[in-house]
Amino acid sequence: MTVPAPERRRLGRVAAPLLAALPLLLLAEPPRPDPVECGRGALAAHPEAAAKAALARRAAREAGPGPSHVEGLDRGVDVLTYDVSLSVDPAREWLEGRTVIRLMAAVDGASSVPLDFAGSYELVEVLRDGRPVPPSSRTSSRLVLPLDPPLSRESRTTLEVAYRGAPPGVGALAFWGSPDGPVVTSLSEPFDARTFWPCVDDPSDRAVVTVRATVPPGVTAASGGLVTEEALPDGRRTFTWRLPQAIPTYLVALSAGRFSTVTSTYVSRDGEVEMPVVSYVLPSTLAAATTHLAAVPRHIEVLAGIFGEYPFVDTKYGIVASHFRGGMEHPTLTSIGSELLGDDSRDLTGLLVHELAHQWWGDEVTMRTWDDIWLNEGFATYAEVLYDERADGVEPGPNLAAWYDDGRYSGALGATVVADPSNPFRYTGAVYEKGAWVLHMLRRLVGDEAFFDALAVYRQRHALGNATRQELRSEVEEVSGVGLKQFFDQWLETPYRPILRVTVGNVPDASAVRVTVEQRQGHAVRHPQAAEGDASWYAFPLRVRLTDASGASANVTANVSGRTATETVTVPNPLGRPVTKVVVDPSKDLLKILEAATVGG
Ligand SMILES: [Zn+2]
Questions:
Q1: For residue 24, how far is its CA from the centre of ligand 1 (angstroms)?
Q2: Is residue 280 part of a domain?
Q3: For 271-298, how does the pLDDT look when each residue is reduced to its tens digit (9 = 90+)?
Q4: How far is the CA of 55 from the centre of ligand 1 (A)?
C-alpha cells in the first residue's frame, strides 16, 4: 500500500497566501481539449485518500458481483451496543475475540441476524441470551445467526460470538514493526470492520461500542472514548475504552504498542470544559510528534469557531500513530501515519485539520450510504480551506484553484461526486476535491450567512445520525430560500465541469455590458429525477471584473440560466465608461475551464 505524502498541502500553505496577494494578470486559461474519458490528472491524491482507496478496491474485488459487502441489506435488526473484547499481542498475528451484540428487532418476526464477519476465524462459542446457538450459515464474509423463536418488533436479544485465529492477511488490522517494538493498528473504512469483529457493517446502523483490549506487559491499547485499566495476575493489562455516543462500525479502531503519550488541553468555547487532548506516539518519534501535535488544541478552537463546539467535548481528542501514511478519523482518536508524525520537516496542518473536521463531518454526522461519501470527505477537505481562511486569512477560491484543482476537464476531478457505493473511494479527486468545490460554490451561491446557518441546521438534525445529499439540499434550501435542484444535479450527479468562452460587449452609452457566455463542454447536465426547470447546461452566477481605460474597476454578476449553450446577459455597467479589459471569475469561485475571456464590440 503506497500513500502519497502530503507535500501538496505543505507547499499550499506556503504558497497560497502569496498567490492570493498577486494581481490577477491572466485573462484566460489556455484552451483545453474536450475528451470523454475520465483519467487521472496531475492532482496528487489527497494524503488521506490512498489508504482508504486501496482498502475499498480490495474489498470490491473480493466481494465480486452482488451486494454482500454493501450496506442497505434489509437485515431487520437495529444493533444497540457492541462490546468488542480482544486479546492481542502486537508481536503475533493472532486474535482471540469475544463480541457481545445487543440488538433490537426492527421488524416483526425477525428470524435471523446476518452478521458481517471474516470466515477465517475459528468460532469458539456462539450464544443467544446465554445459550449456545448453532449458526444458520457461514461464508467467507458472512455469519448468519438464527433467532428462534423470532423476535417481535422492538424486542431485544443478546448475541455473543467468541472466536480466534489469524486475522486475514489484508484486512483492518496491521501488525508492524517499529524501532520501539511491534505495533498493531487498524483501518476499517470502508468494509473491513468485519475482518476483526462480527458486526452489522452498515454505516447507518450506529451503536454504542466498548473496545476492551488485553495486551502484554508494557503495551498500551488505545481506542475511542475514555479508558479504564486493569492489571491481570499474569502481568497483562486490559484497557476498556468506552465512547458513550453511538457510531458506525467502520469508525471502531484498535491500536496497541509501546506508546508514549503527548497531552495538552482544549478549553471549550463556553469556557466550561477543559478537555484532555491525549495522543499516543512511538517514543522514537516523540520530539517531532510533540511539535506537530502542539497545534491540535488551536485546530479544535478554529474549527469549533466555524462549525460549533467539538462534538465529543465531554470525552477527549487525540492522535494515535498508525501504520499507513495518511489519516483516519476515528472518533476522539484520529490515526495518523507514524512516519509522518516522526518527520519534523513536514507541515501536517492540512492532514490534521482534515481528520479533526471529520469529528463533525463523518463521525457525528455520517453519510447514510457509501455513495454519499463526499458528505464526509468533501466536507473535511473544504474544512482545510475554511481553516486556512479563518486562521491565516487565505482566500478560499484561489486556495481551491491552486491546490485542490488539477485544472483538467477530465482529470482527477472528472468523475461524479456521487460515488459507486461498492467502491466509494475509487475516484477520490471527485469525492474529496470536487466535493470541497461543491461546498464552496454552494456557499457563494447562497451567501455566507445562509451557508453556515444551514450547516448548523444540517449538523443539529443529523447529529449522531446519518444524512443524505437530498437532506443536505433540502436543509440548505429551507434556510436560504434558494432552489438547489439544478445546482445539486450539475455538480454532484454530473461528471466533469463546464468549459466556457466569455465575451463582454459594451453598449453605446456604456450604461451596461452584455456578457455572452458560451458553454462548450461535451456533456449535458444529468438529472436523475427530471423536473420542470431542469437545464441541460450549467447554471451559475458568473462574476466578472470590468476595467475601463483609466484603470478603474468594478465587479458585476451575470446570472447564467443554463437554458441554452450560449446566452447573453445584460447587466448595468457601474463604471459608466466603456470596458477595455475583463477578468472572469476574479475570486476563482467557479469550477470550470475558461477557454477565453475577451472584450467584444
Ligand atoms: Zn477524510
A1: 32
A2: no
A3: 999 999 999 999 999 999 999 999 999 9
A4: 14
